[in-house]
Every structure is written in C-alpha cells, then in structure tokens.
Amino acid sequence: MDYTSTSSYLDSAYADCDRAAKVISHKWWIVVRAFQVLISLVSLVMLPILITHFKCRRMKFHVNLSLLVVNVIILYALECIDTVVTQLRFLILNVTYVSPCDFQTDIWLAITLRLPAYIYLIAFPLIHCAVTAERAWATVFAKEYEKVGCTFGVVCTIFVWLMTFGFGFFIAYTASLDVEKPLLLLVITTPRNRYPIAYMHWVLMLLIILTSVADYMVIVQNRRYRKKLQDVEYNLSMNFQLRENMVTMQLIWPLDVFFTIIFTVYLIAGSYMRSSLVDLSPVDYMFVYELINTLFPLHTFATLLLYTRYIKAHEVSRSVKIMPINYHKEMYFKELQKQWA
User: Fold this and answer.
1) What's residue 98's pLDDT?
2) N or C terminus: fewer CB in 10 A for the chain?
3) Is the alpha carbon torsion for 280, 286, 287, 290 positive or negative?
4) CB 299 within 8 A of CB 42
5) Residues 6+ apart with CB under 8 A from 114
6) Interval 170-229: pLDDT, tens
7) What is the 3-class SS of the chain, one letter each residue?
8) Which residues are listed as membrane-spanning (predicted)?
9) Best CA proximity match to 285, nearest among 295, 274, 300
10) Bridge partners of 183?
11) How far lies 159's CA from each of 107, 130, 317, in Å?
C-alpha cells in the first residue's frame, strides 16, 4: 500500500467553506448517504425479525456458540446505528444549514462517529474466527462437547473486545493528536496511525481467508464423522453435535466467503484511493470514499436477508431437532439393553 499521498489525502478531509459548498451541490453524494441510511434502517428492522425467527423455531445451540452469535448481532446493530446516525446528520445538515461552514466536524465528533466502523471492522473477523474454532472443537470432541461449559465463549468474547477496544483507543488517541482543523470528510487516518491501520487491514484479510478455509475443513471433517457414526454404536451427544455443526456451518461458511470478498474489494479499493495513482478533485475523492464505505452497510443488509430467507426456506428448526424424541429414546434404551445383556 502506497501512502506517499497521505498528506494530500488528509488535506482533502479538512473542511473549508468553499469545499463544503461544492459538497452540498454534489447530488450523488446525497444519494449515497441516503442509500446507506435506508439499507441500515431496513437492517435494524430485520434484526429483531431474525431473532424472532430463531426463537419461534426453538433453535437451540451450545452455550459457547450462542455467546458468539450474540456478539455478531451486537456488531450488526452497532454498524447499522452508526451508519444511520452519521449519514443522517449530514443529510439533515444539507437541509438545515445556514452556512456551508456548518458542515465542519470537530475531531472529537469525527472520532465518535467514525470509531464504531473500526470496531466493526476489527471485531467481526475475530468473532467469526472464534466461531470457527468453537465449531472445530465441537466436531473433533463431539462426544464430550455437550458437557463443556461456557468458558470458551466467555474467553473469546473478552479477548475479541479487549483487542478491538485496545486498537480502537490507539486510533482515537493518535487521531486526536494529529488533527487540529475541523473535518469535512470523517477520516481519522493520520500520519501517526496510517501504517498500523494498513497492517491491521492486511492481517485481518489474511485471517478472514484462513477462517473461510477452516470453515470448509470443518464441514468436510463433520461429514466424515457422520459417515463413521453410521458404522458404530449410536451416540446421542455425538449425533446432536454433528447435526448442529452441519446446520451451523451451512449458515456460516457462505457468509464468511461473502465477507472475504467484500473485505477484499474494500481493501483494494481503499488502498488504490490512498495511492498516488488517483487524480481526483477533493470533492470527487470524498464521494468515492463514501461510495466505498457503502460496502459494509450493504454487506450487513445482504447477510441478514440471507439468514432470514435461509431459515424460512429450509426450516432449520427441523434440522436442529434432528429426529423425533421418540427415536432418541428408542436408540437410548437399545444401547442400555446391550449393556445389560
């Protein structure tokens, strides 16, 4: 990633009244912001609907997986709320402003509005990696995993949020030191943190790719264990864990691949925008910057839509229940009879 033009990149973010006036007249800028608000509001409505679908179908997962899923839902909500608040502020200003200078944003407000996006960007891949690790554990130790408590989920949650808030604090602190002028574009990448942020992006992309590969490996291993299970004595706990894995990974793996594609496009586009190869006016630069940032609200919306449609179309509850309880009782007592014989 070439950061030779970082100074001009930051200069384009600084607000002045003339530049703000040009932004106000940029109609496509308004369209992009309005689109982000719209899909984020729809996503916020879809979240409780999705949760209701899970509850109505009585989808029960292991406590570790449930804890990690709660973290994912929190991240979706955080991303949607931040997008709505940030973009709605600019849309309201576009109607109520008295002077173009009203579009200036102090650094403390810029950090407040922009930092949640970094939190989402960092925590989301880490949580998905934790989910993959949890499912791998549930696959390898399927017989005993049902008895495992919530320690793994709690430890992963604490680790993810410590890492996220730690790096987030670093970004906010360095931005507050470097930025002195009001901002028109909400950019908190500065000379002090630009390289750590760049390295973070590449590390996260590598982590996302490895997570997607690991997801597929878990699916393959899960199928092998299920085939072996047919040739051995029936085990209720192992059968439940393997079926739970099947349902979970059918949901997770395609979405991990989708996020990998979205994040890769975001990273490449952002890197190109920050390079010296781009020759755009400051206003056009800001428009393209906002256009790139649309990828994550769009990803959240598409992900929630896919979750909802998958649950409705395939009736996951039947897969999670696996088999009628009478069948489990029958198999259980058959095993007892073998032991008593």
Assistant:
1) 83
2) C
3) positive
4) no
5) 86, 186, 187, 188
6) 999 999 988 878 877 788 888 888 889 888 988 998 999 999 888 888 888 777 766 666
7) CCCCCHHHHHHCCECCHHHHHHHHCCHHHHHHHHHHHHHHHHHHHHHHHHHHHHHHCCCCCCHHHHHHHHHHHHHHHHHHHHHHHHHHHHHHHHHHCCCHHHHCECHHHHHHHHHHHHHHHHHHHHHHHHHHHHHHHHHHCHHHHCCCCCHHHHHHHHHHHHHHHHHHHHHHHHHHHHCCCCECCCCCCCCCCHHHHHHHHHHHHHHHHHHHHHHHHHHHHHHHHHHHHCCCCCCHHHHHHHHHHHHHHHHHHHHHHHHHHHHHHHHHHHHHHHCCCCCCCHHHHHHHHHHHHCHHHHHHHHHHHHHHHHHHHHCHHHHHHCCCHHHHHHHHHHHHHHHHC
8) 28-51, 63-87, 107-131, 152-177, 197-219, 251-273, 285-308
9) 274
10) 14, 105
11) 29, 10, 31
Place of tokens 């590598």: 206
- Amino acid at site 114: R
